[in-house]
Design goal:
This protein is mostly beta strands and 244 residues long. It has one helix and 18 strands. It has a five-stranded mixed β-sheet, with no helix packed on it.
Length: 244
């Protein structure tokens, strides 16, 4: 019996020692951006903003200044965004926020991404980067409807502007897919749409397919499936730029 009492006392002492050790724990000097990614929209030719939160693992009495960095892996043009160089965590707090302003400058119709991080500092570690995905929004997007022939994996396409720049492209699609719809916002102007079939029989076997381009409820282009290797059609959105 005496042996069991001594064992109990020893276990209790170890428990109290563990509690004392935990009371000495100090939260790390660590900061992180809110979890991402986030998806937002900006009006064609317009602007928008997004508030991004920063959190720290501990609270100290003095203000802490952390550098904000934009990663080179971002696709967004520097002319399209603005944000502060630093964020200040006020003394006595473990959170702060800053605003990212975005405008439609050099935007791809497929959208852009901005990857933001906090710079690591001496005796201060930081968390994962935050990705902000921004897509264009408009009242009347260009709608491209595909009806495939059974071999959607053979189909690719693109849209080019009057300078020959490819501004939209897609495909190939999953084999056996019956249809697909693409909606994108484009500025008014003149464009060409091209569709390609890798096998060279268009959208004709085993089913008869087609492609239709629609804008503001109006059919602009209809391409039947019997185009063999490729077909190209011109179309205009809004007022023709070549008419000026």
């Amino acid at each position: 019996m005496k042996k069991y009492i001594l064992l109990f006392v020893a276990t209790l002492a170890l428990s109290f020692a563990g509690c004392d050790h935990e009371s000495d724990f100090t939260s790390p000097n660590y900061a992180a951006l809110q979890a991402g990614p986030a998806d937002i929209k900006v009006e064609l030719g317009g602007s928008t903003s997004y508030e991004l939160n920063v959190y720290t693992a501990n609270i100290v009495n003095e203000d802490r200044v952390i550098d904000i960095v934009v990663r080179e892996s971002s696709s967004m043009s520097p002319a399209a965004y603005s944000l502060p160089e630093t964020v200040v965590i006020p003394g006595g707090s473990n959170e702060a926020a800053f605003t990212v302003d975005v405008q439609d400058v050099n935007f791809s119709p497929n959208g852009e991404s901005l990857i933001i991080g906090l710079a690591a500092q001496e005796n201060f570690s930081t968390g994962d980067d935050f990705q902000l995905n921004v897509s264009l929004s408009c009242d009347s997007p260009l709608v491209i409807d595909f009806v495939f022939d059974g071999y959607a994996n053979e189909t690719t396409w693109n849209v080019k502007d009057t300078d020959g720049n490819t501004i939209l492209e897609g495909g190939p699609y999953a084999e056996g897919a019956a249809s697909a719809t693409v909606e994108r916002c484009l500025p008014d102007g003149d464009y060409t749409f091209s569709i390609f079939d890798a096998y060279g029989d268009g959208l004709t076997f085993p089913n008869e397919g087609s492609v239709t381009l629609t804008f503001a409820g109006e059919e602009l282009v209809v391409i039947p499936g019997d185009f063999d290797e490729e077909a190209t059609e011109a179309f205009t959105l809004g007022g023709s730029s070549s008419a000026d």
